[in-house]
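This part of the workshop introduces the protein records we will be handling. A record pairs a protein's sequence with a compact description of its fold. Comparing a sequence with its tokens is the quickest way to learn the format. To make this concrete, we reproduce a full record directly below:
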Amino acid sequence: MKKLLRNFALSVLATAFGFLYPIAGHAQDSVYELSPAQLQRAMSQFSPNTVITLSPANPAPAQDQSPASRTVYKEDGTKAHLMPLARDVNGMVIPATDFGPLLNHGGPIMQPSVTIYPVFWVPAHLQTGAPTGMTTHYQAVQYYMLGSFLSHGLGSILTQYYQKSPAAFIQNKGGIGKAYLDTSPYPASGCSDPAFPGNCLSDAQIQAEVQKIMKVAGVTGGLDKIFMVFLSSNEGTCLNSKSCTYQFCGYHSYFTLGGKPVIYSNQPYGLTHSCQVAGAPSPNGDPDADTASTAASHELSEAMTDPKLNAWGTAQGNEIGDLCAYKYGPLTWDGGRANQMWNGYYFLVQTEFDNHAGGCYQVGP
């Protein structure tokens, strides 16, 4: 616990040394733009032989299992799509019943160039007063993975998926707009997550955070932007009364603001026991961060191919990431610890479904 509190304190106190950029002219003085230079330093501070973990040993109830359908209704009546738990995939719940292909259901895709806004929401403590945290290194792994995903081979898999009207294909273009750290307190629990009693953010509260960041960033919605909210350790989240973090590893959805769709994802803290396969290597020496990064790549891919949940999915309702969840393919980088090397950094991120080849691949057509 002391290490957890120390890591969080260092992340926040870094503002005094210019590691963060204060957002001038806004009331939300708890929101800081993350400095790319500091994130780069954080990436270089740890070796594969250094292990960092803040995730609890076993927060999930015994009945832990993803819903049969990955697309569920939120409390507001709109839909979201869940990332399945590792144990559900390993138990053949998904691959035994669905081998694709992905079908075009007529909805839009994200294009032409996608701007990603990572948001790290890390308060001083949870709603119950319990400690929480997220290292700067954890943030850096997400930042560099997301910033490199597009323009590389894995992202090229997405370029075969299209929309009919107006005719357009996904472009393997884009990257990070700006990344933000929000140190403001979590609001009072808006839901009840059995895995994290008393500490729970509802989908409505996640949407409110997205709108807060949009105001700080001075941007509107649209099918060329995605806001990815990363939660700190031991914070639960639910999108309805029956779907919480003991049943999923993240989700993507959208809401409408000012007549435009706002695409977003909810990224709970990386739980290695629920959201990673046993024995998975950690190329960044940070199992929690590497677990979170494969979940983030899953949600980014699915949001781009199915942003309004009416574009690309199988007849059984699975999306591009579901069919390949926790499947990494050959680990040919970093001495067998990674399957991707982007811009000099190593990552372990899942493969994506290639309709043309009919399977899960690391590089597209």
